[in-house]
Design brief:
Layout lengths: L6 H17 L6 E6 L2 E7 L2 H4 L6 H13 L7 E7 L3 H10 L3 E6 L19 E4 L3 H15 L1
Parallel strand pairs: 3-4, 4-5
Antiparallel strand pairs: 1-2, 1-3
Helix pairs in contact: 1-5
């Protein structure tokens, strides 16, 4: 079991959000926003259900956190996401000025890191590879099921 309030602990919660997406036939990505070790926003991909290409897990979690705080900047917050964000979500992370971005699995095809870390606010710390195998396997299982 992951230690309370560790990156692994919070990534497990993001993973549960990704599992919801998987169960609903959405690309299985989950995200949570944490502030002072309290989850203040969470979400999973809803692009199919909402017919909205912007309804990514990160966008859902950032919006929920901003609403919770009543603020657009999340400088004292951490975003945990099971799959490396796309360029669109990296832009939202930039504008929200998140303090930390913690990534589960890499996304070699659509992840923002292939374009460079400059897409995220310079003060945002990035860590990746948290529960990488588990997060990656869920995405692989999803796409294997589509073929």
């Amino acid at each position: 079991m992951a230690e309370l309030f560790s990156d692994e602990y919070f990534m497990e919660i993001a993973y549960k959000e990704a599992q919801k997406a998987f169960d609903e036939g959405e690309v299985p990505v989950g995200a949570i926003v944490v502030c002072e070790n309290r989850i203040i926003g969470k979400g999973y991909n809803l692009t199919e259900r909402l017919h909205d290409v912007t309804a990514h897990a990160e966008m859902q979690a950032i919006t929920a956190a901003s609403n919770y705080l009543g603020a657009k900047y999340l400088v004292d917050c951490r975003l945990y996401v099971t799959l490396e964000p796309c360029i669109m979500c990296a832009g939202a992370i930039y504008w929200a000025q998140l303090g930390e971005l913690i990534i589960g699995a890499s996304d070699a095809k659509r992840g923002f890191l292939r374009e460079g870390k400059h897409l995220v606010h310079p003060k945002t710390e990035i860590r990746n590879g948290i529960l990488e195998d588990k997060c990656s396997l869920l995405v692989k299982d999803f796409f294997k099921g589509l073929r």
